[in-house]
Every structure is written in structure tokens, then in C-alpha cells.
Amino acid sequence: MNEIVRAITKPSVCPLDCPDTCSLSVTVSGDTIEAVHGSSVNPFTDGVICNKVARSYPEFVHGEGRLTRPLRRVGKRGDGRYEPISWDAAIDMVHDGFSRAIEQHGPQSVMPFNYAGPHGELAGGSMDRRFFHKLGATLLNRGPLCGAVRGTAYTSLYGPAPGMPPEQARDADLVVVWGNNVTVSNLHLMRVLKDARKNGTRLVVIDPKRTKIAERADLFLQIKPGTDVVLAFAVAAELERRGALDSDFIGRWTTGFDRYMKEARKYAPADAVDSCGLPAEAFAEFVDLYAQARTVAASFGNGIERGRSGGSGLRAGMALQALTGNHGRRGAGVIAKPGLAAPKTTDRLQRPDLIPEGTRTFNIVDVARKLLDADLDPPVMATMIYNHNPVCTHPDQKTLIRALSREDLFIAGCDVVMTDSLAFADVILPAASHFEFDDIYGAYGQNYVQRAAPVIPRVGESLPNTEIFRRLAARFGFDDPIFREDDAALMDAALDADDPRMQGHRPSEVPLDQALEMKAAGGAEPIMCDTVIPATASGRIELYSQDLEDRFGYGVPRYETVARSFPLVLISPSSDKRTNATFGGCSESDGPEIVEINPADAASRGLTSGAMAIVSNDRAKVALKVLVTDKVRAGVLYSPKGTWLRSSETGNTVNALISADIRADIEEGACYNETFVEIAAQ
To answer: What is the mean pLDDT of the chain?
Structure first.
């Protein structure tokens, strides 16, 4: 008689590279995930999750692409032909490949190649960092690929102090959403905005595209891509001319005002009209709203950082809050970095003290050119791709593919599913999904800490990242006890259990039905310039940054244009089907990706909705499906990021069109949105 398997519901957390870090409710039948829903454990996400997580996670975990056994390459590099092997044989292959490189060229000839696939403290960077640090491998500066420009823009003003939790925006009478497609990449802020609007809050949206949130705004400024700093400077100068800056707040809480405003005063309303492409009346209305508001909250997305003047645009936009005194009370502030409130002890977890003195560091955006540099000393002869799908996320895709095609390069790969990047690996290690191991989760877009436990057994022979790197450490003879610590010990190393914000819980024992709110000292709400003090050297908001002046020559923001060789600019924003490239192999992403185009640009090229077109420049050609819409401004194309190679008949994605040579003004960040192209019917 067959036993009836009853579905049960278990708690979990979403680990994807997204600011919201939702609490989840997972329906499990036997060893299979049947459905994923939101849960109310986290009061910020409170039962709501994005469609892509609900639709694609069961397929991601149990679909045809799932890796369940270690594999060895038996075909040509990149053609995806593999045969199963044992775990011992796979670990031996990694040991042999790394050891050959080290024997010939030293430990820095080995390079980890990872970014931010899962955001759990353990899966994202724990035992793996200890292993590569001890090995003496080349270090990787990962932030310039995404996030570092925005993060440094914020910390240049405020230091590593937590910003405003998004819920507080309910108390604002004006909210500015700048370069943030809320419904796609910051979903739960949408609910906050709805509540605020019911209370009479005004909403301004600044974006090159009329997004869903822009359609609900009191004022929408459809800015030209990359001109954000011009707009922010022109607003600051006009507010000063009207006497609408808060001189008392500026005197008490800021430094560098004179140097900052000397640059801002170079811009007038006419510059916002000419450079930003805004109607004069829209600019004037924005200044009016800012000047009249008592309490302003401002949210800034990552899209701004993807241009040459991205760091300057973010800094100048955030600085408007300080210039107008919009700090020091609930509802006033910059909605950014609230997760800094968590008492993380990252050095204890990752052990950077193991790094040999003098170890070099590569900017992750430079990896392709480093791999192809014949004069590099020592050369990179072995790498491990994990928590990352670089072929589908890096700029200059074709050069990266050429770099990964080197026959003399040993490549180990580790992932949950078979990706375009793993197709270049010599050996593949199957990773467990986050539904199959313990982890603890902070967030970068809200201020709660959550823990999750497995909801299903590990699929096939897959292993968590932590166990994979324990086995590698043992194979390399690393006998220090830190390489044998179990996942509970790693969780306890990730956060300070003695900090009052942990509410008496060891990190490894945070209840699964709780989300711990990270507050300011004494249990107060985090409010910048009240319960939270800027963590800068001066203890004030630094409008002039000596650090950025010393490192990059941008003590104050500055606008710089990029020469254009093609008539259209291509923006590749977040997708409603994928989180970066995660889920790119799922059925939701089958078929060609769309490219949105303004009716005027489409008409002049004979393009209609539903037709296939080729978007091209000197680097590549990409096949995309046309969607004609007035939601994008003339001169701009809009095609979501994270597609896999199979999505285009040309075998390239939009990343092949993007230059790796153009960099942001600070942190040498990738400039995805400085991509100039032409489009024509296929």
C-alpha cells in the first residue's frame, strides 16, 4: 500500500542579490519543493515576494539544469560535455590543478572567481575565503562589478553608519525615488510608498524609463542616462539661491560645504534642461517640492552607478538631504545601507589575517584582460568559478569567453545549476542550494537578521560551499582547527553574539520564526544625526571627501561625458524574470529577450513591436525582440540584464556590447550604461 506523502510548510529566507532578503514559506512534499511563498516572519517583507522567486525556485532546485554529481570535462572547453566522477576524484583534480600552478608560478597564480550568487553569510564568503587566504591566492576586489560605487558614494558622506530603514519613509511628506525600479528590484519599498501616499506624501521619480512607480508619481523626471550629477548640482544651487538650504544643520553636521557648493554653483536650471533633457517647468516643480517639504526621504538605486559619473551622481543626490537638513528625525534621510546596523564580525569569519603580506589584488572587472595578459607575472594559471556566472554578468563578454577558453588555464567550477560559465570548467563541483543547508542572513536594503535551516535533504551528491571548501582545505593539508569548524561555528563567527542587537541569541540559534531587528544604541530606531552619528573621521557628513580626492581625484562630485560612437545608448537594468543571471536557465527566460525602443527611434528604423532586431556596435551583435514604447525616452534602448547565451541567435547577450574599459569616476566600477549602439531589423 502506497504511503500518502503530505505536503508540509517550512520557513526559509531568500538569499538572492536583492536588497529585500525576504522571509519565505516553502511547501515541501517528501524531498521536493512544491511551492515558494512569502512569510510574515520578517515584518518588512511580510508575506510578499517577487514573482520570479515564486515561479522559478522549484525549477531551479529540481529542474534539468540541476547539478547532482561531480563532473569531469571530456569534450572541448566550452562545449559542455562531461562525465560523472566521485567527490574524491573531483577534489583531487582541483588539488592537482592548483598545485601545478603553484609549483610553476607560486600561489598567486591561483585566483578565486566569485561574486554574490547567494547572500548568506556562510555561502557568500566564509570557509572559501579562509581557504584562498591560506593558499596565498590572488585577491579579488569584487565590488566594482556592482555595488562598490554606490556603497562608497554613501560612505564618503556618512561613513559605515547605517542609513534610513525603508519603513520610516511612511513619515515623509516627500519621497524621492532616484534610479530605483522599485517594483522589479526593491519590491517592498513599493508597499511603504503606497502607505505614505495614503497619508498625503508626494512622490518624485527620477529615471530614464517611465517605470510602474513613475506612473504613480506626482512628478516624473525622465532624465538622460548618466546626467544625475548635473540635476543634483542644479537643484542644490537653485535651493541656495532661494534661501532653502538649512544653514543651521549644515553648520552643525557637515564639513566641506564651501568646496562642494563651489562646484554645484557652476550649474543652473538651464543645465538641467540642456544636459539632463528635462522640461524647465518639471525642474522648477522639483525644486519647489524639495523647498516646501518638511521631511524628505530619498531612495537611490544601483542604476546610477553604472555610468562614468555614477559615483558623483549618487553623492550629489544624497548630499541634497544634508544640504536641506533632511536628517535627524523619523522619515528624513537616505534609504541606503540600513543593513550596516547588524553587528557583523566579518574578519573573524573570513580571516584576512591569513593573507600573506604583499598579495596582489585584481579588480574583478579586469579579470578577462588579466587572464589574457602574456606579460603578467605571475600569470593566472588556475581559477575557481563559484557563486558567479561571469560570462552572463561581466562587460565585454566575448573577451571573457576568449580568456576562459585558454587551454593552459585550469578551471574548477562550482554551482547549483549548469551555467554558461561552468561550461568552460575542467571539473565541476555540485553545490547545494540554500534550501539544503544552514545559514544566517543579514541584508543590505533592510535592517533585520534572519536564520534559515534546510527544508529538504541535499539533492543528489551536492554539498554546501562550506563543506566543499573544508574538503579542499583538508586535501591541501591545512590542519588548523579553523578549517574544520562546522556551520554552527561559522554562523557564530559571522556576528557578535554579545551585541545587544542579537537579543541574547547566538547567531547559530536565532529562532527560525523570528527576524531580529537591528537597532541603534539603546534600542532606538536608526536615525542619522540623532540615534546614529556619521561614522566619518570628522563625525560629520563630509560633502568634501579627502579619501576620494586622494584615491580618485574626486573630493567633490564632478560631471564628465563619454564620447559616443553610435547614436543610441543601451541600458541593461534588472529583470522581472531573473535576479542578475540567477534563473537565467529557467523556462521563464526561454526565447529572445526584449529591447524597448521609443516610437520615434523605431519609426526611423522601420521597427515594429514583435519583430526581431539586431543591436550592434564594434564589439558584437545581439538578437533581441522589439517592444516599441513611449516609456523609454528617445535615444535610449532598454533591455534587461542577466540573459544566458541561448537567448540570442548570435550567441551573445547585451554584455557583449558593453565596454570593460570605461570605468566609473570612483572605485573603477563597471559602466554598463555607457554602452552606445545601433539597432536594425534582422
So the answer is: 97
